[in-house]
Amino acid sequence: MVQDLRSLDFSEYVDWVTRLGQPKYRAAQIFRWVHREGVADFQRMTDLPLELRQRLVAEASISAPKIRKLLQSDAGQTTKLLLELDDHQCIETVLMQYQRSTTRDRITVCASTQVGCSMGCRFCATGAGGLVRNLTSGEIVGQIYTCNHLLARQKGSKKVTNVVFMGMGEPLMNYRATVKAMRLLSDPRGLHISPRRITVSTCGIVPGIKKLAQEGLPITLAISLHAPEDSLRDFLVPINQRYSLRQLMEACRYYVEMTNRRITFEYTLIRGLNDGPEMAFKLAELVKGLLANVNLIPVNATESDGLLAPEPVQVNRFAETLARLGVNVTIRESRGGAIAAACGQLRATSCCH
Ligand code: SAH
Ligand code: SF4
Q1: Catalytic residue among 92, 139, 170, 266
Q2: Ligand 1 within 6 A of CB of 123
Q3: Which ligand is nearest to the Cα of residue 170, counting in written order?
Q4: Which of 23, 60, 137, 299 suits 335 as a labelling partner, its CA being 20 to 30 A distant?
């Protein structure tokens, strides 16, 4: 089988070049081209002898997604990409360039981990179509490499600084490829993105959270909570029927104990369902003592669900109640609404063909 080099980590490069009968330093050279430069064409690996390049063409491949559509909004600060994979499946990736006067520019990629998703959360456009397949680690990191290529065309030689796994799919249902992708992205021989600048968002896969706690990767964990009581969460996030809030919060406490990292709880606000003061009280009670951040996201409209966002004044009231109860709370600024790139709106159905 032809080996996809984007899915291999450094130790696998060393094994692989050894099998080819090549000296070990070739591993570092090729790894750099693939994982730092994002190069997908062996002929561009100019420090390799021609003969070796030809051999690589025959015995290896580099799976690079093709840009099928590119949509921009927020005065060019948000770019949504529709990417076609080798088997013609499509995923969506969002590149966000925030200009801040106080901190240095942050360039964030919202990356996908699966084609579709099997979790079926009530308000999510990705979940509505079911799961097609997991992405490989090469397909996951490839989204960031493609974004870096786009950035290279702009002036200022900027690169992606932050990655959030909040695109299509449930990262912890594609655990191995996601963790491998995070290690590849943070490898100093590659893009060297600090794990602290990587966020994994999960709807609450309890065994995955516990495993992640043991990886020794100081990433940020975000939990898509959305409801502070089981009956409502069973409805909004059906995986709650399998892993209850009690089990989820226990896994979160374990994660904090093991990693000493803060957890972010995402809470999508839906008018009349989870935006009342009693919900704010229950939410504050739930995250008490956890050093948590709560991120409120007024729900984005999707085509089918009929769920509405609360009025801004209600969103602010909910946030104030939480703050009074001692919770660190922020309201997420929605970006990309005009091009359906906001949270939960990524769904590639009629693409590619
Ligand atoms: N599967 C993972 C990551 C992808 S979803 C997860 O569920 O956490 C990223 C975030 O967008 C999650 O918090 C999700 O609940 C939220 N989201 C999904 N649909 C949304 C919508 N229509 N409006 C606002 N947020 C939504
Ligand atoms: Fe899947 Fe996340 Fe959407 Fe739920 S919110 S269906 S877990 S992508």
Answers
A1: 92
A2: yes
A3: 1
A4: 137
- Predicted confidence (pLDDT) at residue 201 exceeds the cutoff of 80: yes
d(CA 34, CA 31): 5
**Nearest in space to 201 (alpha carbons), one of 178, 184, 185, 180:** 178
DSSP state of 215: S
Compute CA distances 296 → 164, 271, 310, 312, 314, whole Å.
16, 13, 11, 12, 12
Residue 349 has pLDDT above 70, yes or no: no
121 part of the active site: no
Please say if the pLDDT value at position 101 is more than 60: no
Report pLDDT for 350: 40
Q: Is 127 in the pocket of ligand 2 (CB under 6 A)?
A: yes
- Per-residue confidence (pLDDT) for residue 304, from 0 to 100: 58
Q: Is the pLDDT of residue 353 over 50?
A: no
Nearest-CA neighbor of 169 among 121, 238, 241?
121
Q: In Å, how far from its chain's centre is CA 123?
A: 18
Query: CA-CA distance, 258 to 134, in Å (whole number)?
Result: 28
Residue nearest to ligand 1 atom 18, measured at CA: 344
Please tell me what DSSP assigns to residue 155. Answer: T
Q: Which residue has the CA at smallest separation from atom 4 of ligand 1?
A: 166
Distance (Å) of CA 273 to CA 9, 171, 227, 276: 45, 27, 9, 8
* 352 is annotated as an active-site residue: no
Whole-angstrom Cα distance, residue 227 to residue 245? 9
The residue whose two tokens read 């940020």 is 220
Question: Are 318 and 294 within 8 A, CB to CB?
Answer: no
Ligand 1 within 6 A of CB of 302: yes
Whether pLDDT at 346 is above 70: no
| Residue of 21, 31, 28 lying closest to 51 (CA atoms) | 21
Quick one: which ligand is closest to 174's CA?
A: 1
Mean pLDDT of the chain: 92
Ligand 1 in contact with 264 (CB < 6 A)?
no
Q: Is the CB of 300 under 6 A from ligand 1?
A: yes
* 151 vs 339, higher pLDDT: 151
Pocket residue to mutate for ligand 2, from 112, 115, 124, most atoms within 8 A of Cβ: 124
d(CA 312, CA 314): 5
